[in-house]
């Protein structure tokens, strides 16, 4: 198991801790925005609410790491009090708590806020959309962050990428899925655009907080659930209730986790404080991707070899139907508002450029690797 404590107290922070002594926004992550500038780092406690269960690996780790990075980079001047889902507010009440100012920041997945704007899922995951690396390209270099800022500002929030699960699995099913008819009436937990796509295919998709998933499977309230991938899914023990584990996950090819900060709190920060928050989130994002990549392979071995989990590939005709439904849903979202249309256009163009490059880089290399050295 990766030692977060060791990482946070050695090596990586040897250079980033210097941010606490730097008062130049240009050297610490780019120009700051808002009313505050200069002034160093002031002593203050920030209240973070999360959508994750307490002490949960991976997703909860990303929230904890972000909080610890903020404290370390500020030399302890900025402290973060972290509340897991249900400790201060419910998982899905985190957005309103931060928007209204009763909490300073949330850590979650922005597709939970689809009820606020149909464009929000673009900043977590789009079915058949971007991988984690492609998302980083969009946010950092192709206009995604600016559009995210514009969307969230309407709700008094400043957003950041602060963790990523990488590619997710298709989910746990109590029975095998062989034809489209097997999806009809299926009660499945799947949030975001993926859930809407499943509804178009005839399933009864619902959104349930992570802490309630196992009980819902056990009681029969749902027949199937997606969650994350082997690392997180093993911890929840879904294999005890649903033996069939489907791949690939069409709905979340790289689920972006987010930190949303109350915009008034953000605007009150100095340039140095903003640089600390910004770079703490970037560091947590980087670490999260590495953790999930390392831990998912180990957990998958345990699930298959020790718990007899049955891996199943989603049939191609079902994936084709889900892809067709995805195009339909995305067209509707793009037409729903001006901001949604601009977000969709930017996302689609950035993805198009990535696909052209990936075809002769990552995809070509991985195909050659499989052919030449097997697994």
* Beta-strand content: 5-15%
What's the multimeric state?
A: single chain
Query: Residue ranges: pLDDT <50 for 5 or more in a row?
Result: 1-37
Q: How much is the average pLDDT?
A: 90
- Binned, the helix content reads 40-55%
Structural class determined from secondary elements: alpha/beta
Question: Per the principal axes of the C-alpha atoms, what is the gross shape?
Answer: globular
Please count the helical segments. Answer: 14
- How many angstroms does the end-to-end distance come to? 23 Å
* Main β-sheet description: 6 strands, mixed
CATH architecture of the domain at 4-167 and 254-294: 3-Layer(aba) Sandwich
Q: List the secondary-structure elements in sequence, H or E.
A: HHEHEHEHHEEEHEHEHEEHHEHHH
Biggest β-sheet: strands ordered side by side in the sheet:
7-6-8-5-9-11
What is the topological layout?
Blueprint: H1 4-9, H2 12-16, E1 44-50, H3 59-73, E2 78-83, H4 94-100, E3 105-108, H5 132-141, H6 144-153, E4 157-164, E5 171-173, E6 187-189, H7 192-200, E7 204-206, H8 213-219, E8 224-225, H9 230-236, E9 244-247, E10 256-262, H10 263-267, H11 271-307, E11 310-313, H12 316-334, H13 338-360, H14 362-373
């Amino acid at each position: 198991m990766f030692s977060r404590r060791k990482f946070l107290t050695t090596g990586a922070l040897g250079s980033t801790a210097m941010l606490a002594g730097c008062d130049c926004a240009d050297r610490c992550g780019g120009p700051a925005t808002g009313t505050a500038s200069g002034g160093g780092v002031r002593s203050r406690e920030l209240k973070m609410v999360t959508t994750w269960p307490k002490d949960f690996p991976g997703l909860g780790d990303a929230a904890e790491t972000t909080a610890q990075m903020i404290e370390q980079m500020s030399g302890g001047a900025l402290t973060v009090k972290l509340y897991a889902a249900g400790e201060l507010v419910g998982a899905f009440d985190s957005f309103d708590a931060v928007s209204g100012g009763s909490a300073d920041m949330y850590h979650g997945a922005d597709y939970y806020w689809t009820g606020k704007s149909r464009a929000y899922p673009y900043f977590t995951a789009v079915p058949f959309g971007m991988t984690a690396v492609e998302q980083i390209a969009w946010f950092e270099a192709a206009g995604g962050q600016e559009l995210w800022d514009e969307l969230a500002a309407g709700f008094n929030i400043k957003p950041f990428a602060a963790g990523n699960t990488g590619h997710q699995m298709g989910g746990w099913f109590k029975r095998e899925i062989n034809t489209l008819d097997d999806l009809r009436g299926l009660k499945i937990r799947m949030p975001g655009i993926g859930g809407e796509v499943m509804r178009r295919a005839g399933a009864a998709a619902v959104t349930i907080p992570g802490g309630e998933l196992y009980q819902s499977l056990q009681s029969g309230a749902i027949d199937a659930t997606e969650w994350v991938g082997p690392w997180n899914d093993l911890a929840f023990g879904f294999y005890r209730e649903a033996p069939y584990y489907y791949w690939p996950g069409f709905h979340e090819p790289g689920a972006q986790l987010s930190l949303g900060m109350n915009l008034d709190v953000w605007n009150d920060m100095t340039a140095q404080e903003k640089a600390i928050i910004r770079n703490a989130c970037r560091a947590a994002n980087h670490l999260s991707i590495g953790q999930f990549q390392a831990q998912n392979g180990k957990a998958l071995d345990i699930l298959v070899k020790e718990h007899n989990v049955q891996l199943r590939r989603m049939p191609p005709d079902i994936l084709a139907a889900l892809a067709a439904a995805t195009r339909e849903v995305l067209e509707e979202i793009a037409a729903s508002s001006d901001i949604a249309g601009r977000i969709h256009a930017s996302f689609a163009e950035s993805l198009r450029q990535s696909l052209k490059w990936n075809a002769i880089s990552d995809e070509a290399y991985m195909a050659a690797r499989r052919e030449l050295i097997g697994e």
